[in-house]
Design the sequence.
């Protein structure tokens, strides 16, 4: 019955004069009132989650809102509609610059693939708000456990673009990040990295360290068993893990609705006893705020709060799943265009221009600097020689077993005799 | 004078875990029922009380979660020793084993290594329910990046387990549960290792080389003794590690005898016996005097226990296989 009265919590809060003032800020009595509403709502409408508001740091936090009450800071036109995060102008411009850099890199990478200069590549355009916004919230000591599309996030966390290019150009060396870059290798099997993030965070906790871990995966991953097992372990062992779901609406050709009947992906947190929150993934400032709060809670847990958080960042993949995919087969252009109106880069740029932080001159400077940066990275990656066949064997084990040594030597002798041309397809 | 204890194989496994937990703070034991319960086979008995729940960890019932979180721990430099309660239940964790345990070092060009040891009781003969008796070591031996160890005596079980836990690479440690309590042996109390990748000669003989491992070592030795009374002398080689195989020891025993039989309880097709046969014809063809025999489980799904004695290689089947090789 109550579910009929409260079908949508955010709408309810907005329409209820006791809960909301004209400027959208809550009244002082709201937390108490909300706890009553939440109790009633959970009692009668368990699928719907809780009602709350997004004031990070207060006793009622971003984690207390209903799962479908999407956190927003900037609307599609860059107008401020929520609490701005505490970021100075320099950080905001850097965030913008990284988003532009990721977009430009993405375009160049797709083009390299088309020209036969790179293998299959998974584009990220449209997802810069979620990737850069979330990665900006990480401390340098925090760890990132990516899937295979998080080039933008990894870049922010210190992974050189050259590494990403190398990986997609077929070099494992792309995963051999500099030692001070806390980024895990790319994980291709869907959701299989989720237990790794839990285990790595668990190790940190067992050793008494206070690092936080962020794990990226997509909407399709939430259907996998490893998502369940990894998040469940995190709940049970209260590990400092932030599970960041890039819900980009499509798992190759299968829409979000085919993955689960759940109204939101954020609400899956409820089953694991951890916090879940939905954020506008095309809104980098909202993503930053939510991720920052989740990481802080992971590092420095509150007494009655679980350390892990599931964040659902609602967003859209503008391009194909990979360069081997043709999305026109399974989705309409209209849908793509509707989502492009929410472009995270345009949104942040509009806000920064309104604030007088960016102007045409500054934007032009940024454009030329990122073009040079990507061009340099491509030059560096393309100048990498093909690895020697020894590399095939070298890293399978810490010490090469005798049989592998023999296999290598036999191959090396034949290569000496016949030359590389006998083996390489050009 | 080294102090010893008279232990069964499963007690030696427990003692090995105890020693390594004591020696290295990065070692954690994790799995279903390994904590308070001490393991369904008692392989972790008392460890929870001594080392606490952060070192001897009862996990949710989730094999992929157990292996996958251990991968994450190991990537951060810990030395997790996850247990899968029976090897027949490793398959939900198979993707984590082959896609990640085996590949992390290669994938990251050595930046990340996984010093983890996945333990599981394996093999038949204990009148267990369905899915509790399989021998699937060939799956893991086929996967580059893994090492696969199969002890057959209490003393070596402890030493091989210690070597596995200290190894920089991921190890699948398959414990022959048929002989968990079959006999006792003096096991040193102090820490020690038995090297991975080295076979052991259990019995010397000039007529035929018999290669085996795990629980099949006992019926193979029994058959060898019986045949010895008839004047047929078997060289019995216990592989101890099925990946990487000790090719030198295998070839040396064959060159000595010119005849060979391989015994394992896993099914014949795609099993280790085929691999060993191939090694011998690659390396020692000119020594060969008879077809290489394979005495193995049949190519059928492992049966419920009313039929398992027929399925498992018995001393009688092993004797017959050896006689065929010797009398050719």
Sequence:
């Amino acid at each position: 019955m109550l579910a009929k009265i409260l079908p949508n919590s955010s709408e309810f809060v907005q329409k209820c004069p006791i809960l909301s003032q004209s400027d959208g800020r809550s009244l002082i009595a709201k937390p108490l009132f909300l706890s009553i509403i939440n109790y009633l709502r959970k009692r009668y409408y368990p699928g719907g989650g809780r009602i709350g508001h997004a004031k990070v740091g207060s006793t009622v936090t971003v984690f207390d809102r209903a799962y479908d009450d999407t956190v927003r800071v900037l609307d599609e036109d860059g107008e401020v509609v929520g609490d701005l995060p505490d970021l100075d102008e320099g950080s905001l411009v850097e965030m913008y610059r990284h988003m532009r850099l990721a977009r430009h890199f993405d375009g160049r990478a797709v083009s390299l693939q088309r020209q036969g200069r790179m293998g299959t590549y998974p584009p990220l355009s449209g997802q810069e708000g979620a990737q850069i916004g979330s990665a900006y919230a990480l401390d340098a000591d925090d760890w990132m456990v990516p899937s295979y599309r998080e080039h933008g996030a990894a870049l922010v966390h210190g992974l050189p673009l050259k590494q990403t290019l190398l990986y997609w150009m077929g070099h494992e060396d792309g995963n051999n990040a500099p030692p001070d870059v806390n980024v895990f290798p790319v994980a291709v099997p869907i959701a299989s990295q989720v237990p790794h993030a839990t285990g790595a965070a668990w190790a940190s906790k067992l050793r008494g360290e206070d690092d936080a871990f962020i794990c990226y995966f997509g909407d399709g991953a939430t259907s996998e068993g490893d998502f369940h097992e990894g998040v469940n372990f995190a709940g049970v062992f209260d590990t400092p893990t932030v599970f960041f779901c890039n819900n980009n609406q499509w798992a190759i050709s299968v829409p979000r609705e085919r993955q689960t009947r759940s109204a939101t992906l954020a609400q899956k947190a409820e089953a694991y006893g951890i916090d879940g929150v939905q954020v506008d993934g095309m809104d980098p400032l909202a993503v930053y705020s939510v991720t920052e709060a989740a990481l802080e809670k992971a590092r420095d847990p509150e007494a009655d709060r679980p350390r892990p958080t599931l964040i659902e960042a609602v967003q859209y993949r503008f391009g194909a799943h990979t360069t081997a995919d043709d999305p026109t087969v399974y989705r309409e252009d209209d849908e793509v265009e509707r989502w492009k109106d929410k472009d995270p880069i345009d949104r942040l740029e509009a806000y920064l221009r309104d604030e007088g932080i960016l102007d045409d001159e500054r934007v032009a400077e940024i454009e030329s600097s990122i073009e040079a940066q990507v061009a340099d990275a491509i030059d560096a990656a393309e100048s990498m020689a093909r690895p020697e066949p020894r590399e095939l064997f070298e890293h399978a084990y810490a010490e090469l077993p005798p049989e592998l040594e023999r296999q290598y030597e036999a191959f090396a002798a034949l290569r000496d005799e016949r030359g590389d041309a006998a083996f390489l397809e050009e | 004078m080294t102090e010893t204890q008279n232990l069964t194989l499963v007690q030696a496994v427990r003692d090995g875990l105890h020693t390594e937990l004591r020696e290295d703070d990065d070692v954690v034991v994790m799995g279903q029922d390994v904590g308070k319960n001490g393991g369904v086979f008692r392989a972790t008995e008392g460890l929870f009380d001594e080392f606490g729940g952060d070192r001897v960890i009862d996990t949710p019932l989730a094999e992929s979660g157990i292996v996958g979180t251990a991968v994450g721990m190991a990537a951060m430099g810990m030395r997790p020793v996850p247990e899968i309660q029976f090897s027949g239940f490793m398959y939900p964790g198979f993707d984590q084993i082959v896609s990640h345990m085996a590949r992390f070092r290669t994938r990251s060009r050595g930046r990340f290594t996984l010093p983890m040891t996945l333990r599981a009781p394996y093999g038949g003969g204990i009148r267990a329910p369905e899915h509790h008796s399989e021998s699937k070591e060939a799956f893991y031996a086929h996967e580059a990046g893994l090492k696969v160890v199969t002890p057959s005596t209490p003393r070596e079980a402890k030493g091989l387990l210690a070597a596995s836990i200290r190894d920089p690479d991921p190890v699948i440690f398959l414990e022959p549960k048929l002989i968990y309590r079959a006999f006792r042996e003096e096991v040193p109390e102090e820490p020690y290792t038995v090297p991975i990748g080295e076979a052991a000669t259990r019995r010397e003989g000039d007529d035929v080389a018999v290669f085996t491992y795990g629980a099949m070592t006992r019926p193979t030795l029994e058959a060898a003794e019986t045949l010895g009374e008839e004047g047929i002398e078997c060289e019995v080689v216990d592989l101890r590690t099925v990946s990487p195989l000790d090719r030198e020891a295998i070839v040396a025993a064959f060159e000595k005898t010119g005849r060979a039989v391989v015994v394992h309880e896993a099914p014949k097709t795609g099993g280790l016996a085929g691999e060993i046969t191939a090694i011998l014809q690659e390396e020692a063809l000119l020594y060969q005097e008879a077809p290489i025999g394979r005495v193995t489980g049949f190519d059928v799904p492992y049966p419920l226990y009313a039929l398992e004695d027929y399925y498992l290689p018995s001393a009688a089947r092993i004797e017959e296989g050896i006689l065929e090789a010797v009398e050719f």
